[in-house]
Design goal:
5% helix; 5-stranded antiparallel sheet; 187 residues; mainly beta; 6-stranded antiparallel sheet
Length: 187
């Protein structure tokens, strides 16, 4: 596995080693040993998967407040997405900055998103299957979101069809109005 910096500390593109021949391919998507060799120490406790039926669906920007914050390792097994991580840690040198990466079944890239970051994605194709590992269990009480189009953050999603947003994402607050409790150095 190879890690590639994104410009946001801790947000990393992970490229797995893919072994292929005329029959298909094999790759490891998670290995404690390989991640620890890259200096990444995570104890993932839950796997999640979502399906998005059509191109242009936007999900996010989501996170769980502390003490239930989650680090995520995300990847696409079918289709393609624009995947976005946003630094939500007050006091961070990269506060409100974001990184965007195309993840697809074809490029097999993964994105490692540490605690203290919001996460969202927009589907670039129809029929997207999206998988992620998290290092903390889901908590309804800590589940939060901020507006995907918050002007203080300014993520460039391209054109967004409002009818493809969930009720939750349509009504999420701006960051300045949210109760996001991430503080740099504490998450």
């Amino acid at each position: 596995m190879k890690k590639i910096e994104t410009g946001l500390p801790g947000v990393l593109i992970i490229e797995p080693q893919v072994f292929g021949d005329q029959r298909g391919y094999f790759m490891e998507t998670w290995s404690t040993r390989n991640f620890e060799e890259m200096g990444l120490h995570y104890d993932f406790v839950q796997d999640n998967q979502s399906f998005s039926a059509q191109k242009g669906i936007l999900r996010g920007i989501h996170f769980q407040n502390a003490p239930c914050a989650q680090a995520k390792l995300v990847r696409v097994t079918k289709g393609a997405v624009l995947d976005v991580a946003v630094d939500l840690r007050r006091g961070s040198p990269t506060y409100k900055q974001w990184a965007a990466v195309e993840l697809s079944a074809e490029n097999k890239r993964m994105l490692m998103i540490p605690r203290g970051f919001g996460h969202g994605f927009k589907t670039l194709t129809d029929s997207v299957e999206f998988c992620y590992k998290v290092d903390n269990l889901y908590s309804k009480e800590c589940d939060r979101g901020i507006r995907f189009d918050d002007p203080a953050i300014g993520v460039d999603w391209g054109e967004v069809a409002r009818e493809l947003l969930s009720e939750k994402d349509t009504h999420s607050p701006l960051l300045r109005d949210s109760d996001c409790n991430f503080i740099y150095g504490e998450v």
